[in-house]
Amino acid sequence: MMKEAKQRRSLFGSRSRKPLKKTAVIWLMAAALLLSITGLSGCASAKLPEQDDGRLQIVTTIFPPYDFARAIGGDKVNVTMLLSPGEEVHSYEPTPLDIRKIRQCGLFLYVGGENDVWVERILDNMGEDRPQALRLVDLTDILEEEIVEGMMEERGGHDHEGHDHEGHDHEDHDHEEAETHDHEDHDHEEADVHGHGEHAHSGDSSEEEHEEADEHVWTSPVKAAEIILAIADKMEELDPDNAESYKTNAGAYVEQILDLDAQYREIVENAERATIVFGDRFPIRYFAQEYGLDYFAAFPGCSSESEPSASTLAFLIDKVREEQIPVVFSIEFSNGNIARAICESTGAVRRTFWSCHNVTKEQMESGATYVSLMTENLVAVREALGERNAEK
């Protein structure tokens, strides 16, 4: 079954939303590791070497909080990202070393939401030894994930098309409906390991409340600024000796981000259109709402689907043609096949929108930041929206 799922993912660059088969093994390994570490808690050998330099140790799951923490902390902190550069975030699974890093850090930053269920379980199992932690979804208001017109629903659900395409001839881009996921792979084995359900959240007794929450809060620059200030407050609390430095650095980075926000607003204000199209998942709902943009996309931001239905693909192609949309977006680490198919049928160009989940190894080495990635997006968004008074 897992082999078939991997084969389905290979065509359009999908990911497994809940890789539960492997997680049971991970939880058992984690439990064994935590027991061994607890037994060594009084020994120097239980500490990671990099914790001996006196600086605040911060561990993050993905790139945005990593970038925010290093911008705030400068040389006063050590920041470690668990996700390796170039790794697709939704295929990440923690290693025993990752769990040890979390336990021994001074501050742990993670997103929260469905893809971080593993974090909640690991932290719960650490008991009194759990580190100070912040969830990004707790630092700002969140939105529910939504299904818009033409978008294919999760797990083989009904498409939300605005019109019937059955009479259209779309032989050049006809695709089979994505296979319905076999829920025998989602048998919740790990619930038996730890004695609680799939969507456990610290301090939250309702599974349904967060099940469809959109966790990509950082994609709005305004929300990114809010998150940075909240992280800085926590760092000041944990390391008061360097509080003034953290406050100054956070203020400077927020200023850069708000300047970027002003540039986006200027583009939207003078834009020819207010619609963007994604031939991919759509992980930037916060961005779209921030700037009042309408959007059409193949899948929601956290979808596990990999191939669009023929009707979804036809809808997007028709939408691009009808509204003369010049740019179709795909996201980083996607193979871009859906967007490419739309572009081949319409004459639009494909551009990458960096959702900032992660960066490539080359980008990390060259010093890429949230601001530099969102600045690249700025150029692409300007091209996609056009200018109202530009010469045709």
CATH superfamily heading of the domain at 147-173 and 270-385: Nitrogenase molybdenum iron protein domain
Uncertain ranges: 1-50, 155-210
Number of helices: 14
Shape: globular
Helix content: 40-55%
The CATH architecture term of the domain at 147-173 and 270-385 is 3-Layer(aba) Sandwich
Topology, number of strands: 10
Strand order of the largest sheet: 2-1-3-4
Distance between the termini: 52 Å
Please describe the biggest sheet, giving its number of strands, its sense, and whether it closes into a barrel: 4 strands, parallel
CATH class of the domain at 147-173 and 270-385: Alpha Beta
Helix/strand class: alpha/beta
Average predicted local confidence, pLDDT = 79
CATH topology of the domain at 147-173 and 270-385: Rossmann fold
Helix-strand pattern, N to C? Answer: HHEHEHEHEEHHEHHEHEHEHEHH
Rg estimate, integer Å: 22 Å
Question: Could you walk me through the main structural features you see in this protein, from its secondary elements to its overall organization?
Answer:
43% of the residues lie in helices and 12% in strands. The protein is an alpha/beta fold. The chain has a domain of 143 residues: Nitrogenase molybdenum iron protein domain (Rossmann fold, 3-Layer(aba) Sandwich), CATH 3.40.50.1980. α12 links the parallel β9 and β10. α2 packs parallel to α5.
